[in-house]
Amino acid sequence: MERITGLMVYYYFVCHKKLWYHLKNINLESESESVGIGKLIDESYYLREDKHISIDDTINIDFMKNWRILHDIKKSKSIEEASIWQMKYYLYYLHKKGLNIEKGIIDYPLLKERKEVTLSNDDKVEMDKIILDIKRIKRLEIAPSTLNNKVCNKCAFYEYCFC
Questions:
Q1: Measured between alpha carbons, how far is residue 80 from residues 57, 69, 144 in Å?
Q2: In the beta sheet, which residues pair with residue 73?
Q3: Contact present, 83 and 106 (Cβ < 8 Å)
Q4: For the chain, which end, N or C, has fewer CB atoms within 10 Å of the first or last residue's CB respectively?
Q5: What is the C-alpha to C-alpha distance for residues 114 and 98, in angstroms, rounded to an integer?
Q6: Could you tell me the pTM of the whole model?
């Protein structure tokens, strides 16, 4: 069975081209200032929590409360839909493993806000479709076309796509 990670689901909603690069092991994120800031935020908040729970090397949960509530720390809401679906994937994946997690919470510590996420039956059906489409993108010989949206200019792959 092909492994689909939470990061793949996140990238699926950010940009199919970025996802394709990731699937082909073309990674420029380590050089990204934005990624560095996100790591600093992750290291600076929720210090009392047992953080970075990796399950099957497939999903990486920032922290969990009583095996009932998942938490994911994000620096901003700029790509909130991707964050929501990544959390839905965590819930979906654990549900498939027989764990019924109550909900997920996306924490935005800099904004002092939270977003509660649940997984509906419709979400499960949609997630099955998303997983199939991620597998389709992985099989592509050539990267999908470039989007030109507001997140592109902050992306680590900007020069790859536009220069």
A1: 24, 19, 22
A2: 107
A3: yes
A4: N
A5: 26
A6: 0.87
Helix spans in the chain (H): 6-14, 16-23, 33-44, 80-96, 121-139, 158-162
- Token readout for 61 is 């949960």
Name the burial class of residue 138, with classes exposed (0-12), middle (13-18) and buried (19+) by CB atoms within 10 angstroms of its CB.
middle
Q: What is the pLDDT of residues 90-125, one digit of tens each?
A: 999 999 999 989 999 999 988 999 999 999 999 999
137: number of Cβ within 10 Å: 19
